[in-house]
Design a protein that fits this description.
Length: 131
């Protein structure tokens, strides 16, 4: 199967169901970032929220850039979760995807800087290195 043509990368019906549930219960930070990203508000790029990708659900996904944006709350600071996040990133990168991570606090307190990072990526995705 050529996953590059399928922006769900083989996600199962169960992952699609869980993603739909998550779209109804966004965190405060996810809601704030979604207001910035939805309706092509940012650099005319189409983003999806709680998007199924294989066995995972990305917080936000832009298929044209092959960009996953992840927001991390306090749970992501635990040793177990850090290891899971590393494995997840490894698998997503193996699909040819790029990942930018932000802390929830960054989105809530400095949305303008978050916007600038995403715009910089959109302007030059091949040469962008996240902070």
């Amino acid at each position: 199967m050529d996953y590059s043509q399928n922006f769900f990368y083989g996600a199962s019906p169960e992952i699609h169901r869980r993603a739909k549930e998550l779209r109804r219960t966004l965190t405060t930070a996810e809601t704030k970032l979604w207001e910035l990203l939805k309706n092509k508000n940012l650099t005319s790029l189409k983003f999806r929220r709680q998007h199924p990708i294989g066995p995972y659900i990305a917080d936000f996904y832009c298929h044209s850039l092959r960009l996953v944006i992840e927001l991390d709350g306090g749970v992501h600071d635990t040793i177990d979760q850090i290891e899971r996040d590393k494995g997840r990133e490894f698998e997503l990168r193996n699909l040819g995807l790029r990942i930018i991570r932000f802390q929830n606090d960054e989105v809530l307190s400095n949305l303008d800087q978050v916007r600038k990072v995403i715009e910089a990526f959109g302007a030059n995705p091949d040469y962008f290195t996240p902070p």
